[in-house]
């Protein structure tokens, strides 16, 4: 994950893949609930996510103030 410079600060770029997003959450928040951590571990190795799984990942990112997934997350 890199960042773009904008007026008044740095804006983080969206995560390119669900795996990158999941690894970032696992790295930055080691005190996750077991269910959440297990889900993120699954995301790291999954070939694809269902819409429901994608929604949960988006929710996890939002709750922790992390950047979103890029628009082409399912490509």
Binned strand content: 5-15%
Number of helices: 3
User: Regions with pLDDT < 50 over 5+ consecutive residues?
Assistant: none
Q: What's the count of strands?
A: 2
Tertiary shape: globular
SS-derived structural category: mainly alpha
Question: What proportion of the residues is helical, as a percent range?
Answer: 40-55%
What string, H for helix and E for strand, traces the elements in order? EEHHH
Describe this structure in words.
Helices cover 48% and strands 11% of the residues. With 75 residues, it is mainly α. The protein has a domain at 13-63. A two-stranded antiparallel sheet has the order 1-2. The protein is globular and about 40 Å long.
Write a concise synopsis of the structure shown:
The protein has 75 residues and is mostly helical. The chain has helices at 18-28, 34-45, 51-63; strands at 3-6, 9-12.
SSE topology:
Layout: E1 3-6, E2 9-12, H1 18-28, H2 34-45, H3 51-63
Antiparallel strand pairs: 1-2
Descriptive labels:
about 80 residues; two-stranded antiparallel sheet; about 50% helix; 3 helices; 2 strands; mainly alpha; single chain
């Amino acid at each position: 994950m890199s960042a773009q410079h904008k007026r008044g600060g740095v804006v983080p770029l969206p995560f390119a893949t669900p795996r990158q997003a999941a690894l970032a959450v696992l790295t930055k928040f080691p005190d996750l609930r077991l269910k959440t951590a297990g889900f993120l571990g699954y995301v790291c190795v999954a070939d694809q996510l269902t819409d429901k799984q994608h929604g949960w990942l988006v929710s996890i990112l939002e709750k922790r103030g992390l950047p979103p997934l890029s628009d082409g997350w399912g490509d």
